[in-house]
Request: fold
Amino acid sequence: MTQLDRNREHLLETYRKKAKHYDVTSRLYPVPGYPQQSQRLRSVQALRLRRGATVVDVACGTGLNFSLIEKEIGPEGRIFGVDLTDAMLAQAETRVETNGWHNVTLVQADAADFDFPTGIDAILSTYALSQVPECADVISHGAAALSQGGRWAVLDLKIPAQAPEWVTHFGSTIARPFASIDEWVSRRPWEAIRAAMQEHLIDLSWAELCLGTAFLASGSRGPKATL
Reply:
Protein backbone atom coordinates (compact mmCIF):
# COMPACT_ATOMS: atom_id res chain seq x y z
CA MET A 1 0.00 0.00 0.00
CA THR A 2 1.39 3.41 -0.96
CA GLN A 3 1.53 6.41 1.35
CA LEU A 4 -1.33 7.99 -0.61
CA ASP A 5 -3.43 4.88 -0.07
CA ARG A 6 -2.64 4.91 3.63
CA ASN A 7 -3.64 8.57 3.86
CA ARG A 8 -6.97 7.85 2.15
CA GLU A 9 -7.66 4.88 4.43
CA HIS A 10 -6.86 7.02 7.47
CA LEU A 11 -9.25 9.75 6.31
CA LEU A 12 -11.99 7.22 5.57
CA GLU A 13 -11.63 5.63 8.99
CA THR A 14 -11.50 9.00 10.76
CA TYR A 15 -14.58 10.47 9.10
CA ARG A 16 -16.61 7.28 9.26
CA LYS A 17 -16.21 7.44 13.02
CA LYS A 18 -17.06 11.13 13.13
CA ALA A 19 -19.93 11.19 10.61
CA LYS A 20 -22.90 10.55 12.89
CA HIS A 21 -22.03 13.38 15.29
CA TYR A 22 -20.03 15.56 12.92
CA ASP A 23 -22.52 18.42 12.77
CA VAL A 24 -22.25 18.83 16.55
CA THR A 25 -18.54 18.17 17.03
CA SER A 26 -17.55 20.34 14.06
CA ARG A 27 -18.72 23.37 16.05
CA LEU A 28 -15.72 22.78 18.29
CA TYR A 29 -13.32 22.58 15.34
CA PRO A 30 -10.52 23.43 15.41
CA VAL A 31 -11.12 24.88 18.90
CA PRO A 32 -14.26 26.03 20.73
CA GLY A 33 -15.26 29.51 19.63
CA TYR A 34 -13.48 29.36 16.27
CA PRO A 35 -15.61 31.39 13.80
CA GLN A 36 -16.14 28.48 11.45
CA GLN A 37 -19.68 29.36 10.36
CA SER A 38 -18.89 32.98 9.57
CA GLN A 39 -15.87 31.83 7.57
CA ARG A 40 -18.04 29.37 5.63
CA LEU A 41 -20.45 32.20 4.82
CA ARG A 42 -17.56 34.40 3.69
CA SER A 43 -16.30 31.64 1.37
CA VAL A 44 -19.73 31.23 -0.23
CA GLN A 45 -19.95 34.99 -0.71
CA ALA A 46 -16.56 34.86 -2.46
CA LEU A 47 -18.19 32.75 -5.19
CA ARG A 48 -20.47 35.68 -6.20
CA LEU A 49 -23.28 33.26 -6.96
CA ARG A 50 -26.42 34.07 -8.90
CA ARG A 51 -29.81 32.40 -9.08
CA GLY A 52 -29.68 29.24 -11.14
CA ALA A 53 -25.93 28.70 -10.76
CA THR A 54 -24.32 25.25 -10.66
CA VAL A 55 -21.89 24.70 -7.79
CA VAL A 56 -19.54 21.82 -6.93
CA ASP A 57 -18.82 21.46 -3.20
CA VAL A 58 -15.58 19.48 -2.99
CA ALA A 59 -15.25 17.31 0.14
CA CYS A 60 -18.73 18.43 1.15
CA GLY A 61 -18.90 16.22 4.22
CA THR A 62 -22.37 16.28 5.77
CA GLY A 63 -23.41 19.24 3.63
CA LEU A 64 -22.79 22.07 6.07
CA ASN A 65 -22.36 24.50 3.15
CA PHE A 66 -25.52 23.47 1.32
CA SER A 67 -27.98 25.83 3.03
CA LEU A 68 -25.65 28.80 2.45
CA ILE A 69 -25.35 27.90 -1.23
CA GLU A 70 -29.07 27.23 -1.64
CA LYS A 71 -29.89 30.73 -0.40
CA GLU A 72 -27.86 32.15 -3.29
CA ILE A 73 -28.75 29.82 -6.17
CA GLY A 74 -32.37 29.00 -5.35
CA PRO A 75 -34.24 25.90 -6.53
CA GLU A 76 -33.28 26.75 -10.13
CA GLY A 77 -29.61 26.12 -9.29
CA ARG A 78 -27.71 22.88 -8.83
CA ILE A 79 -25.29 21.53 -6.23
CA PHE A 80 -22.91 18.62 -6.73
CA GLY A 81 -21.68 17.45 -3.34
CA VAL A 82 -18.52 15.33 -3.60
CA ASP A 83 -16.96 13.43 -0.72
CA LEU A 84 -14.67 10.45 -0.18
CA THR A 85 -16.55 9.02 2.79
CA ASP A 86 -19.80 7.08 2.43
CA ALA A 87 -20.86 7.74 6.02
CA MET A 88 -20.49 11.50 5.60
CA LEU A 89 -22.52 11.41 2.40
CA ALA A 90 -25.24 9.44 4.20
CA GLN A 91 -25.53 12.34 6.64
CA ALA A 92 -25.56 14.79 3.74
CA GLU A 93 -28.37 12.83 2.10
CA THR A 94 -30.41 13.07 5.29
CA ARG A 95 -29.84 16.83 5.32
CA VAL A 96 -30.97 17.09 1.69
CA GLU A 97 -34.12 15.04 2.32
CA THR A 98 -34.98 16.94 5.51
CA ASN A 99 -34.77 20.27 3.70
CA GLY A 100 -36.62 19.04 0.63
CA TRP A 101 -33.86 20.07 -1.76
CA HIS A 102 -34.37 18.49 -5.17
CA ASN A 103 -31.36 20.10 -6.83
CA VAL A 104 -28.54 18.32 -4.98
CA THR A 105 -26.55 15.42 -6.44
CA LEU A 106 -24.21 13.55 -4.08
CA VAL A 107 -21.15 11.77 -5.48
CA GLN A 108 -18.78 9.49 -3.59
CA ALA A 109 -15.32 10.12 -5.03
CA ASP A 110 -11.80 11.09 -4.11
CA ALA A 111 -11.39 14.78 -4.91
CA ALA A 112 -8.23 13.93 -6.88
CA ASP A 113 -10.16 11.53 -9.13
CA PHE A 114 -13.42 13.45 -9.49
CA ASP A 115 -14.46 14.22 -13.07
CA PHE A 116 -15.79 17.78 -12.80
CA PRO A 117 -18.85 18.55 -14.95
CA THR A 118 -18.00 21.06 -17.66
CA GLY A 119 -19.36 24.57 -17.73
CA ILE A 120 -20.01 24.83 -14.00
CA ASP A 121 -20.33 28.24 -12.38
CA ALA A 122 -18.47 27.76 -9.10
CA ILE A 123 -16.41 25.36 -6.99
CA LEU A 124 -16.04 25.48 -3.23
CA SER A 125 -13.97 23.55 -0.71
CA THR A 126 -14.00 24.30 3.02
CA TYR A 127 -11.67 22.85 5.67
CA ALA A 128 -10.76 19.84 3.54
CA LEU A 129 -8.59 20.39 0.47
CA SER A 130 -5.33 20.67 2.40
CA GLN A 131 -5.77 17.03 3.41
CA VAL A 132 -5.59 15.96 -0.24
CA PRO A 133 -1.95 15.43 -1.32
CA GLU A 134 -2.92 16.16 -4.94
CA CYS A 135 -4.63 19.44 -3.98
CA ALA A 136 -2.90 21.40 -6.76
CA ASP A 137 -4.25 18.94 -9.34
CA VAL A 138 -7.76 19.34 -7.92
CA ILE A 139 -7.45 23.12 -8.37
CA SER A 140 -6.32 22.78 -11.99
CA HIS A 141 -8.94 20.17 -12.92
CA GLY A 142 -11.66 22.30 -11.41
CA ALA A 143 -10.43 25.47 -13.09
CA ALA A 144 -10.55 23.76 -16.48
CA ALA A 145 -14.18 22.77 -15.89
CA LEU A 146 -15.36 26.25 -14.91
CA SER A 147 -17.28 28.39 -17.35
CA GLN A 148 -15.59 31.66 -18.28
CA GLY A 149 -15.81 33.91 -15.25
CA GLY A 150 -16.65 30.95 -12.99
CA ARG A 151 -15.29 31.11 -9.47
CA TRP A 152 -13.12 28.81 -7.31
CA ALA A 153 -12.97 29.39 -3.53
CA VAL A 154 -10.97 27.49 -0.92
CA LEU A 155 -11.27 27.96 2.82
CA ASP A 156 -8.79 25.92 4.82
CA LEU A 157 -6.35 25.75 7.71
CA LYS A 158 -2.62 26.49 7.62
CA ILE A 159 0.42 27.02 9.79
CA PRO A 160 0.92 30.72 10.51
CA ALA A 161 3.98 32.31 8.95
CA GLN A 162 6.48 34.00 11.30
CA ALA A 163 4.19 33.34 14.24
CA PRO A 164 4.97 32.87 17.93
CA GLU A 165 5.68 29.28 18.92
CA TRP A 166 2.30 28.87 20.65
CA VAL A 167 0.45 29.85 17.47
CA THR A 168 2.47 27.39 15.38
CA HIS A 169 1.76 24.69 17.97
CA PHE A 170 -1.95 25.54 17.73
CA GLY A 171 -1.87 25.22 13.97
CA SER A 172 -0.19 21.85 14.23
CA THR A 173 -2.66 20.59 16.81
CA ILE A 174 -5.76 21.38 14.76
CA ALA A 175 -4.61 19.19 11.89
CA ARG A 176 -3.36 16.27 13.96
CA PRO A 177 -6.61 14.22 14.10
CA PHE A 178 -6.99 14.24 10.33
CA ALA A 179 -3.57 13.44 8.87
CA SER A 180 0.04 12.83 9.70
CA ILE A 181 0.98 16.20 11.12
CA ASP A 182 4.62 15.90 10.11
CA GLU A 183 3.59 15.12 6.54
CA TRP A 184 1.02 17.93 6.51
CA VAL A 185 3.45 20.52 7.84
CA SER A 186 6.31 19.48 5.54
CA ARG A 187 4.00 19.39 2.51
CA ARG A 188 2.62 22.90 3.23
CA PRO A 189 -0.50 22.35 1.10
CA TRP A 190 -1.71 25.93 1.45
CA GLU A 191 1.29 27.02 -0.60
CA ALA A 192 0.50 24.47 -3.32
CA ILE A 193 -3.13 25.62 -3.37
CA ARG A 194 -2.13 29.26 -3.70
CA ALA A 195 0.37 28.54 -6.48
CA ALA A 196 -2.14 26.45 -8.42
CA MET A 197 -4.83 29.11 -8.13
CA GLN A 198 -2.38 31.77 -9.29
CA GLU A 199 -1.51 29.62 -12.30
CA HIS A 200 -5.00 28.66 -13.40
CA LEU A 201 -7.20 31.57 -12.29
CA ILE A 202 -7.24 35.33 -12.56
CA ASP A 203 -7.97 38.03 -9.99
CA LEU A 204 -6.75 35.83 -7.15
CA SER A 205 -7.73 37.02 -3.69
CA TRP A 206 -5.89 35.65 -0.65
CA ALA A 207 -6.93 36.51 2.90
CA GLU A 208 -5.34 35.14 6.08
CA LEU A 209 -7.81 34.56 8.89
CA CYS A 210 -7.58 34.10 12.66
CA LEU A 211 -3.91 34.97 13.18
CA GLY A 212 -2.93 33.12 10.04
CA THR A 213 -4.37 29.76 11.17
CA ALA A 214 -6.71 29.75 8.16
CA PHE A 215 -6.96 31.27 4.71
CA LEU A 216 -9.61 32.09 2.13
CA ALA A 217 -8.46 32.06 -1.49
CA SER A 218 -10.68 32.77 -4.49
CA GLY A 219 -10.33 33.54 -8.17
CA SER A 220 -12.06 33.39 -11.54
CA ARG A 221 -11.46 31.45 -14.70
CA GLY A 222 -10.26 33.72 -17.45
CA PRO A 223 -10.71 33.20 -21.20
CA LYS A 224 -7.39 31.32 -21.50
CA ALA A 225 -7.46 29.21 -18.32
CA THR A 226 -6.15 25.73 -19.14
CA LEU A 227 -4.72 22.67 -17.46
